[in-house]
């Protein structure tokens, strides 16, 4: 299993205001679904921050996202260790396969992989 990137997920009161503020820090918008937006460094594209309103399909707001190369293997590892899955493994309409898991300190981690098909 390989980690591709780790991104903080920040609950945003206004995604537009967050975009404008972080653009002034040098970030550029790289994804925007209306309820979730990711901004990245133009010179280091894996340096990212995500802003979220209410999640489109999950009942809770994640604290961070971890993109992995094999989300199914990570899911199986979390289930085997008895971790609390708070959002089931599923394919999302925006091209990712993901699940949410609670870490030992109660933080919610969105574990995802981009679908290739």
Description:
By secondary structure, the chain is an alpha+beta fold. The chain has a single domain, classed as 2,3-Dihydroxybiphenyl 1,2-Dioxygenase, domain 1, CATH 3.10.180.10. The chain is 17% helix and 44% strand. The protein has 2 helices and 8 strands. It has helices spanning 15-24, 71-80; strands at residues 3-11, 28-32, 36-40, 48-52, 64-68, 84-91, 96-102, 108-114. It has an 8-stranded mixed beta sheet with strand order 2-3-4-1-5-8-7-6, with helices on one face. It is globular, with a radius of gyration of 14 Å.
How is the topology of this model organized?
Layout: E1 3-11, H1 15-24, E2 28-32, E3 36-40, E4 48-52, E5 64-68, H2 71-80, E6 84-91, E7 96-102, E8 108-114
Parallel strand pairs: 1-4, 5-8
Antiparallel strand pairs: 1-5, 2-3, 3-4, 6-7, 7-8
What can be said about this structure in brief?
The chain has 117 residues and is of the alpha+beta class. Helices cover 17% and strands 44% of the residues.
Quote the distance from N terminus to C terminus: 20 Å
Instruction: Based on Cα principal axes, name the global outline.
Output: globular
Give the rounded overall mean pLDDT: 93
CATH topology: 2,3-Dihydroxybiphenyl 1,2-Dioxygenase, domain 1
* Helical stretch tally: 2
Descriptors for this entry?
117 residues; 2,3-Dihydroxybiphenyl 1,2-Dioxygenase, domain 1; eight-stranded mixed β-sheet; 2 helices
């Amino acid at each position: 299993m390989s980690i591709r990137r780790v991104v903080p997920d920040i609950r945003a009161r206004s995604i537009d205001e967050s975009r404008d503020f972080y653009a002034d820090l040098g970030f550029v918008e790289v994804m925007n679904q209306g309820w979730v937006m990711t901004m990245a460094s133009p010179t280091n594209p894996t340096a990212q921050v995500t802003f979220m309103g209410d999640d489109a399909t999950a009942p809770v707001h994640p604290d961070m996202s971890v993109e992995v190369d094999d989300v199914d293997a990570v899911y199986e590892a979390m289930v085997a260790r008895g971790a609390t899955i708070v959002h089931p493994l599923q394919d999302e309409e925006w091209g990712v396969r993901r699940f949410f898991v609670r870490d030992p300190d109660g933080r919610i981690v969105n574990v995802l992989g981009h679908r290739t098909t």
